[in-house]
Amino acid sequence: MHVLVTGGAGFIGSHLVERLLADGHTVTVLDDLSGGRRENLAPVGDHPRLRLIVGDVTDPAALGAAFEGVELVFHLAAVVGIPRVLADPLRMIRVNVGGTERVLEACAARGVPVCVASSSEVYGKGIRWPAAEDDDLRLGPPTVPRWAYAVSKLLDEHLALAWARRGLSVRVVRYFNVYGPRADPQGYGYVIARFMEQAWRGEPLTVYGDGRQTRSFIYVEDAVEGTLRAGVLPAAAGHVLNIGHPEEISILALAEKVRAITGRSVPIRFLPLAEVYGPDFEEVPRRVPDVSKARALLGFEARVTLDEGLQRTWEWWQACQRV
Ligand code: NAD
Questions:
Q1: Is the CB–ligand 1 distance for residue 119 below 6 Å?
Q2: Residue 253: what pLDDT?
Q3: 104 and 159 in contact (C-beta within 8 Å)?
Q4: Taking a C-beta distance cutoff of 8 angstroms, is the pair 284, 125 a contact?
Q5: Dihedrals φ, ψ of 84, to 5°?
Q6: Probe ligand 1: pick from 5, 6, 12, 56, max atoms within 8 Å of CB?
Q7: Staple 73 to which of 99, 114, 288, 298, CB 3.0 to 4.6 Å?
Q8: What is the pLDDT of residues 71-87, one digit of tens each?
Q9: For residue 197, what are the CA distances in angstroms to 190, 275, 277?
Q10: Using a 6 Å cutoff on CB, does residue 179 contact ligand 1?
Q11: What distance in angstroms lies between residue 263's CA and the mean position of ligand 1's atoms?
């Protein structure tokens, strides 16, 4: 197949591109390189079946060029990461909502199936954990800028499902904290990348808040597998699917784990959330997915344990720092 990956030079996108090429597909990447990097595609950079278009998903001309000959789309392009969202919420809303709207319109006009990337952020503070796709959502007020990202992704989901009702083959994946090689320490909740960078430099691992908040982390190879299944399996059409690992860990325990795996005897430093993100920031104490829908519809289950994934990420981290 000829597959378009928007945001394909980003963290998850570049791994998805590698996998698609390895599976024999032809891939077009549309990415404006605002968050992603050309180097993320270095392992496949000169692949004869890869075409990189540097352009903006909100630009109709760039989209038109990117869609030529395309049979399936993975729409991952977005402004991602709390620091970027807080720095310019307006740009984030324009790209995350406007970009998705244009991609869906382009898919509908050409009858091309699409998989849209959403986020566990849409659960907000949550009603119950583990959270299932049909649960109610609990977001904070619009005066707290962090919720703008969740709302942008939620509107993407509504757009996708509205197009599904008009006959477009569309599905949505809600990622829960993806980690692994190439994650940007500045990116979305990339606490693991940040801890590894700090450990590498011999600096304290900075835990925001008291460290008792829990999260679940899915290794990028697993996230790619779940995404691919969602993209190609007919059973996924019209559905929203959690793509995550069902195990949860506190951020303090995660810091201790990273310290043990990296072998760096660095201290752990606690930073008040207000100091990091400003006085309005609202922290979410717990976030873990119910993965039964992905298991039932996609036969998908995350396989890489946190220890193994951290080990692999640390090996990559060391290798790329030595270059
Ligand atoms: P990323 O920042 O590495 O990737 C996003 C890519 O989109 C980047 O390469 C960036 O350059 C590109 N992009 C941004 N604005 C663009 C524009 N206007 N036009 C074209 N390209 C543009 O982030 P990621 O972690 O790989 O995230 C991929 C997707 O998964 C995003 O939609 C994100 O919201 C979602 N997601 C990620 C996580 C996670 O844990 N990494 C969790 C939940 C959701």
A1: yes
A2: 98
A3: yes
A4: yes
A5: -70, -40
A6: 12
A7: 114
A8: 999 999 999 987 888 88
A9: 11, 20, 20
A10: no
A11: 31
Average pLDDT over residues 145-164: 96
Q: What is the pLDDT of residue 61?
A: 97
Residue 54: CB within 6 Å of ligand 1? no
Probe target for ligand 1 pocket from 76, 82, 153, with the most ligand atoms within 8 Å of CB = 76
Which has the closest alpha carbon to 133: 235, 244, 13, 299?
A: 244
For residue 50, give the 3-state DSSP assignment. strand
Q: Per-residue pLDDT averaged across 290-313, rounded?
A: 98
Task: Write the CB contacts of 301 (distance below 8 Å, at least 6 apart in sequence).
Answer: 291, 294, 295
C-alpha dihedral, 262 to 264 to 268 to 274, nearest 10°: -60
Q: Can you give the pTM of this predicted structure?
A: 0.96
Q: Give the class (CATH, top level) of 2-179+217-244+289-304.
A: alpha beta
Answer yes or no: is the C-beta of 92 below 6 A from any ligand 1 atom: no
Residues belonging to the active site: 149
For 187-231, write each residue's pLDDT tens digit. 655 899 999 999 999 999 999 999 999 999 999 999 999 999 999
Q: What are the beta bridge partners of residue 53? A: 30
- The residue ranges of every structural domain in the chain are 2-179+217-244+289-304
How far is residue 323's CA from residue 320's CA, in Å, rounded to a whole number? 5
Q: Which long-range contacts (CB under 8 A, 24 or more apart) does 43-46 make?
A: 43/18, 44/17, 44/18
Residue 164 has pLDDT above 70, yes or no: yes
Residue 283 has pLDDT above 90, yes or no: no
Contact 108, 163 (CB under 8 A): yes
